[in-house]
């Protein structure tokens, strides 16, 4: 002797029951005052402090460390930029001969009878390295002026010098790839070279 509504409720418990049947009742404090609210926030703060951080996959993460630099922090970014400049400057110093060899080959591939030689590229590279390391334009401008004087301000030679400056980035990237540098660092170093 069960009626139709009983049968559908048992076979589909959520079909005819309201939301109040599924949720647990909320207990409200009988009287609210400023002191009861402040004690509630203190209890909540303590409960939050005891929680551990979890990743979206459910694994535990290390807790936030007070004072740890955030990646968007200006000082952190400045420090990273300085590290990348130092790394790139070191690579340019250690691999100068190899970079200049690749670089000269690239220049001669574009201009068969180039007037530029290894010495010209080494001079230019010293100026570029100083600019990358210290953001000092004076060294770079001095190197370019020295080369222009050495090339006797010949317009064809100066055009080849401009081409060499343009090809510098590719020559450095070839040598950087031979080192075990992480891809995101490669991108950052590539940006430094391009900006120089």
From TrEMBL:
Residues 1-22 are annotated as: Disordered. Residues 76-195 form the MAP3K HisK-N-like globin domain. This is MAP3K HisK-N-like globin domain-containing protein. It comes from Cuerna arida.
